[in-house]
């Protein structure tokens, strides 16, 4: 990216974007612009199209209409200016990779040729491991690490070549509170120090409430976008869901009550069966 | 049993076969590491049955058996690669292809008027004579697979671990997946010639599975897998020369024994690790 774009344009722009599958519209007429260093939370019930939105930005899912632009040009698949942390998948035990190898894939995993490290790559991996606080378990097999530890590694992998945009698909799922805080602070620090824009899909806004600049709330084929104070309000969400929803705030936390049953914020869909049992407890 | 002099003489006659076995064992072990990570053991079996059909067809038509084997292998591997991106689709496609291939192969063999020992060897393996032009083919194909595998090693590792992220990070997923299927098809065709269609997994699955029991290092696992494969193949051939049985029971027994030992070692070391923590 050259300096001109850096100053002026948005990192990411969605213009009048629409996507649906079959009869069903996930969202339509979506406009969103994300500036450098902005932290945007994407909220919404299961199946509202949050993952699909990220896939669109990744260039892996074509829009039905509208445009998606990264740094002014249409998004394309395999763009290394984007870092991606997928909806959590645990690495199966027995996978022949150590923690540092997972991070190293972010640095050179796309490169063909004899699998020998180039100069400086080892240091880069070491640096990334230190950034995400994973140095102490760098040589352990990935499959033997906890969900939180693996998630830190995925963050490290995604940051490998200083992305301008970081896409995180429920990176806090199945983490305990301490790890939720650890991982979200990691990502927050990143965007503060390096001006990386962040699109952060989450079911629970509370762990990142004090960090987000804006919220994109998807539900029932519609969306609302704005600051947390603008979006997380009873009348706004009631309109979005088409039924009465209450929003309570206490001690800096937000509690949403009355989300229709069919759209609960439960966690147990869309996960491959080969995950470790009990991982979502 | 035979006496030592005769054995040494025989050894001289089959030394090329030993070389072919060694190369196959080594490359098969490496390919096996990815077969395990991509959950493709069943695909290996499916491809080998179609490879068998191709070889049997070639025998019947009187054309090059290795070529027939290759054609069968590649058709199966590419079909599985194109139609079976997801594990469930893949397994159903293999489940359909496998009996079709085996049935076809048996039909071709039944129609083949030649010696029956020839026929049987496609299923259970054979020691190839020194002067056989096949041998150069088998070694050559194995080496091609080795080089190509090393060249796609890293993207293939990334894609095997997490295809979505790999694609997002610029790995051409579809190309890498298909390239791996082609390499798998090639090495299966070679294996069918040496160890036989029914027992291909002893060199393409067992050594890697054994290595994965004792290590999780991305360097040690491929090294161990290729050493295990090489040892099983070479020791199997050396034993087979002395006896009158086909080659494959020796190879399968050795590779199975290595697997059992690795399981025990792996369990013991995990227990030690737990005790230490
Ligand atoms: N390629 C596809 N073909 C058909 N339907 C699809 C496709 N991808 C997604 N969908 C459907 O689109 C809807 C939205 O999926 P998506 O994964 O984006 O939801 P989500 O908001 O991420 O949900 P969750 O919170 O459960 O992760 C789902 O109903 C899903 O079945
Ligand atoms: Mg999702």
Structural write-up:
The complex is a heterodimer of chains A (281) and B (277). Chain A has helices spanning 3-7, 50-57, 99-108, 121-131, 147-158, 177-194, 228-231, 234-241, and strands at 12-21, 24-34, 39-43, 65-70, 73-74, 82-85, 165-169, 197-201, 214-219, 222-226, 246-250, 253-257. Chain A has a single domain (3-264), classed as Rossmann fold. In chain A, β7 (165-169), α6 (177-194) and β8 form a beta-alpha-beta unit. In chain A, the strands form three sheets. In chain A, strands 6-7-8-3-9-10 form a six-stranded mixed sheet, sandwiched between helices. The N and C termini of chain A lie far apart (42 Å). The longest helix of chain A has 18 residues, at 177-194. Chain A is globular, with a radius of gyration of 19 Å. Chain A is α/β, with parallel strands linked by helices and 281 residues long. Chain A is 27% helix and 25% strand. Chain B is mostly helical. Chain B has a single domain, classed as ABC transporter involved in vitamin B12 uptake, BtuC, CATH 1.10.3470.10. Helices cover 83% and strands 0% of the residues of chain B. Chain B is built from 14 helices and no strands. Chain B has helices at 4-13, 15-37, 41-61, 65-83, 87-111, 116-124, 134-151, 153-161, 163-168, 173-195, 201-204, 206-214, 220-242, 247-276. The model of chain B has no long low-confidence stretch (mean pLDDT 90). Classes of the chains: A alpha/beta (281), B mainly alpha (277). The structure holds adenosine-5'-triphosphate and magnesium ion. The site of adenosine-5'-triphosphate has 13 residues of chain A, from α2. The site of adenosine-5'-triphosphate (ATP) has 13 residues of chain A, from α2.
List keywords for this structure.
heterodimer; A: 281 residues; alpha/beta; Rossmann fold; four-stranded antiparallel β-sheet; disordered N terminus; B: 277 residues; mainly alpha; ABC transporter involved in vitamin B12 uptake, BtuC; 14 helices; binds adenosine-5'-triphosphate; binds magnesium ion
